[in-house]
Amino acid sequence: MNEITSAENEQLMKLAFKRSDYNSKSLSNLSKFNAHLSKIQAEKVQEENRPVILRNVVHDLNYSLITLKHNLVSELQSSEENYNTLNDFSAVSLNNQQSMDLDEGLDYYQTVSTPVSNAFVLLAKHIYLIRYLFQDEVENQPKLFAVVKYKQLCGEFNNLLESNIIKLKHEADSDFILNLFVSYLIANDLCPIDVLKKILEKRLAEFKSLVTTKRPFQELLNYVFVTIQFMNFIQSRVQVTISRLQNAIGSSNWVQQTSFQKWSKWLYKNPTLKSDNDIQVQYKFEAYSDRIDKGDFADTMKQLKINVSQLLLDKFNAAFDKSSENLTDLVILLRYALISFKHFTSLSTLPVGSDNIVDYLIERWRKEFLVKLTSKLNEFENIGHLILETFGNEELINSIVNSSSESCLYEFDDDFSMGELLQFPGDKSSNDQVFVLLDAFKQDLKSTGNSIDSLKTLSTLVLKPLLSIDDYEDDDFWVQVSVKLKDILSESVNSSISILNKSISTFFDKISSLLEESKSGVSNTRIFYMIRILVQLEEKIQLNEFYETFSTHSNTSIDTRIKLSELIEPLLANYFKVIVDSIFNAKYASKLEKLLEERFKPSKDYVEFMLWENISDEKRIPTTSSIEYSELLLSFCSDLISASGKNYSNYFILPSFEKVRQETVKLLISKLNGYINTLNETKIDANDGTVNSKLLLTYADCLFTNFFLNTEVPGEESHTKFAEIFKPLADADYRKQITYSILENYKNQSLIYYPLSI
Q1: In angstroms, rounded to a whole number, what is the distance separating the alpha carbons of residues 110 and 83?
Q2: Are 543 and 564 a contacting pair, CB within 8 Å?
Q3: What is the DSSP letter of 641?
Q4: Model pTM?
Q5: Regarding predicted confidence, which is higher, 107 or 189?
Q6: CA separation for the pair 11, 2 (Å, rounded)
Q7: What is the rounded distance in angstroms from the CA atom of residue 316 to the CA atom of residue 756?
Q8: pLDDT for 12-27, tens place per residue?
């Protein structure tokens, strides 16, 4: 029928042209009918070729997507090469000591070029045109190869959009993020607020992953700041942008912009087409608004800020837990957080409940810092408990000292094992625990001082202006932050001093009480252990440095300053007194008394008399102290520096022993002089030469002992009692000869009487 109709129509057209004139109406009607037939034929051809056209436009879409990916990779490589080149140039310049501004190199960033950015929008239009012109195939023929490939390419394009959306981190990317927003809007046929939420969802997910890495706070805040800037930029431009899309005419024709142009004559005509040769497809939001509701936008941004605040707090808490062993690290952590917010002051208003995030962080940090500070300083209390427990364990101290390969000296070497002695109950792996803890406590005191210094510096640093891309300024806010930091500083100083003073005072009160309770029945090994501990305390706990460091940061003067030496020295002297008294009273007081009682017995003879020089029959010069007295002194000195087979001689170098030494020497002298008083009372025979020699020998012992105090010639009190019995001693020249003779002997052998000798 079509062939017959066409043939007849052609014959009619020939006949009509022969019979009609220029103004004939029949010719016009016939032309219209002929045009209608041509249109039907064209539509038939177009309909028959739709699958072919769809395959071609999908192929063009695939090619465009590949090209876009390639261009993105090329620009990224070019950016990295430029960055590396700039860094190399910077290094050369620095090596050549040339001055240059390195800020450009450090902050170098190159955004995606405008052609590549615009290519995203064109690709989105291409996707939309396929869905718009081939809606029937896309919706009703899902297994068609071209449809499958189209949906695959749409997924890849969305992935490309999302990957670029999440990685943008510079304010220079604002135009690019707007194009990505428009591309997502067109390609997915969504309303603007939904696209905005989708972008925020992707960037928030990326931020969550960044928070779990070791990235610094400033980089995290930059990502948040740029995200908020992007959203504000999109919100301000979305109405104009969508309006331009809806009113695309002329050179903005979507078909002419995309590869659809070469297939335009083959596209199926519809009411939107103006003519056969000019196919114009416009993207219109018939069901959606062309703007973003301010209320929805505000609610969306508020929720974003709440989520971001919580993630930043999680990051801070995780970093806090890792830094909690070092107080200085804690201050550094706070410094990184606050200075990061200083670069992005507008983010300091991020909500955390009813507070802003900066105030919340400071308060959270303050509580934890004071807890850690208290814990560090309270460690001395634990050390004190361990010392007291160990001191009360006689068996434990003896077993450890006996197992030591070296003597217990004041200068303690590394081989000295105090492992069992200083372990915590149930802990069999630790060694020298008290001294390990003391070393750790010394470092803790140093760390405390350093943290206080750092906190003081930070309170000033937050007031200094910093270069930032954030144009939000609030100087009053940072003044308040500085005040809060100074309050924390003052609180930390006062708390530290109070805690340490209380711990030290309590410990020494217990030690003093323990000494009074243990004067009888405590071994010298335990006493030497306590002396060692006290010496180490003075070395480890350097209170003067501690007070000086803290006084520079305190608003009030430190009235309560404990002088550790004033607490330790009396205790050390008392412990030495206990050692000397216990040894002397247990063995040597009775020995000395017996020695003097037997000296003047007629049966007692001394070979020392044979060594004396004779001036006259009545005047002889003793050259040394008596052998039996010297032996007693030597034995006494040996027992003083020894306990349980160990040598503690270096302990007696301590200045705190000096007073005890002098008291001990004076005790010996008083014992000798006291016995002479007894002889006076018994009225011994002064004409007996043997008695006088023994008296002179006792005088030599007394002189020899006096030289432990002073090597100068003794005063009158040293011979008065002797001269009352032995008259020649009243002669000063005679006494001087005896003194020089004994002194010479003392100088030759004084070292063997350590620690009683000077």
Answers
A1: 9
A2: yes
A3: T
A4: 0.72
A5: 189
A6: 14
A7: 63
A8: 666 665 655 555 555 5
